[in-house]
């Protein structure tokens, strides 16, 4: 829970009363490798915080899985496009490793906003971060060459690259695994 409280403190100050409220609103769960935190077609009912582990976001398009994002320790996980309006999700969120996650339900998140002194500010600032990351990712996908997208991936996930299968990384940067192998070979030759 300390890691979760620290992540929230990144956005807002917390009093001891606020911490007690947060402790009462969040639950903890162990997720097994391969287990889904969310499956497409279901409503995203929780915001998760990863204490330990790694997850990927993906959709299935024309029968092919397309990875769109990863989250690791110390990060929040949610399909906000489903969570906020409580509508069915178009994405899947899957544990790539055994994960320990804290989660808060949609109803409890409303209580968080009401009862934690700067709760609504936390929600706004958190969503601003999500929005900026999404815009940067979309811009990169449309404007940057694959090698630069891979370098951006390495910058964003420096300590997790070895934990993610290469075909998920290739999918994330929008190329085939063979192309990723060529990029990695060229980059290793530069060293």
Automatic annotation (TrEMBL):
Pfam families: cNMP_binding
Protein's name according to its UniProt entry: Crp/Fnr family transcriptional regulator
InterPro entries: cNMP-bd_dom (IPR000595), cNMP-bd_dom_sf (IPR018490), RmlC-like_jellyroll (IPR014710)
Top-rank lineage group of the source organism: Bacteria
Domain Cyclic nucleotide-binding: 21-110
SUPFAM superfamilies xrefs: cAMP-binding domain-like
Top-level taxonomy: Bacteria, Pseudomonadati, Bacteroidota, Chitinophagia, Chitinophagales
CDD domains: CAP_ED
């Amino acid at each position: 829970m300390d890691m979760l409280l620290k992540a929230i403190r990144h956005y807002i100050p917390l009093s001891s009363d606020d911490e007690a409220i947060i402790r009462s609103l969040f639950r903890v769960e162990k997720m097994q490798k391969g287990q889904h935190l969310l499956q497409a077609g279901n409503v995203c009912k929780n915001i998760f915080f990863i204490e330990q582990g790694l997850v990927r976001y993906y959709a299935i398009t024309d029968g092919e899985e397309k990875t769109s994002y990863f989250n690791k320790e110390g990060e929040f996980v949610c399909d906000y496009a489903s969570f906020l309006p409580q509508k069915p999700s178009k994405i899947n969120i899957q544990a790539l490793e055994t994960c320990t996650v804290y989660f808060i339900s949609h109803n409890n998140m409303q209580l968080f906003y009401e009862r934690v002194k700067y709760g609504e500010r936390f929600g706004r600032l958190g969503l601003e971060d999500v929005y900026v990351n999404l815009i940067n990712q979309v811009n990169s996908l449309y404007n940057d060459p694959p090698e630069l997208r891979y370098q951006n991936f390495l910058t964003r996930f420096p300590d997790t690259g070895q934990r993610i299968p290469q075909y998920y990384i290739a999918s994330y940067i929008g190329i085939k695994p063979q192309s990723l192998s060529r990029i990695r070979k060229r980059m290793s030759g530069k060293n």
